[in-house]
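[Discussion] Sanity-checking designs against the backbone

I'm trying to build intuition for which residues belong where. Below is a structure token string of 173 positions. I'd appreciate it if someone posts a full sequence so I can compare it with mine line by line.
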């Protein structure tokens, strides 16, 4: 099976709030099929991750503890995070209106720090539900690591393999 040095993932996180918003039907469950945290952790990522690999894992602030569990459960050690501030969006949330998402960076094996002279902050317009900024993918490509796999992908991108239930996947898990 092909091994990847870069795994870029935006899991379909399950929230405990199926009834949200003014319509009481605007949570993630109304947009796509979600997964329980334990099912995400149990995915056989060790079969596709190179012995020296980097994981870029999207997380929302309320589910940060779950995201850290996934990162560790997939065999990666947390190193840092990149923050995406969604401009022109009120955001969603119960405690505060969330206008940021974070992308956790974890490593396994021997990966040298990138030492990219780039900030750990991206600021772009909010996109459609769950869509991530292209600037993040461009930042990952600057690392020079390959091959690259996007998990839970919604579209295919040149230079990347993809796995997801909305596309024809390049791999089976």
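Best answer:
Here's mine. Compare freely.
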């Amino acid at each position: 099976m092909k091994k990847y040095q870069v795994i870029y993932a935006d899991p379909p996180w399950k929230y405990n709030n199926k009834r949200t918003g003014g319509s009481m039907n605007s949570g993630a469950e109304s947009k796509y099929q979600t997964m329980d945290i334990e099912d995400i952790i149990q995915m056989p990522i060790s079969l596709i991750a190179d012995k020296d690999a980097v994981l870029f894992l999207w997380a929302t602030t309320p589910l940060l503890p779950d995201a850290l569990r996934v990162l560790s459960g997939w065999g990666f050690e947390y190193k840092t995070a990149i923050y995406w501030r969604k401009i022109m969006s009120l955001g969603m949330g119960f405690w505060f209106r969330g206008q940021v998402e974070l992308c956790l960076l974890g490593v396994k094996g021997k990966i040298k720090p990138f030492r990219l002279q780039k900030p750990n902050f991206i600021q772009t317009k909010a996109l459609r539900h769950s869509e991530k900024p292209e600037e993040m993918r461009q930042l990952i490509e600057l690392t020079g690591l390959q091959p690259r796999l996007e998990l839970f992908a919604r579209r295919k991108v040149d230079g990347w393999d993809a796995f997801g239930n909305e596309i024809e996947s390049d791999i089976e898990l």
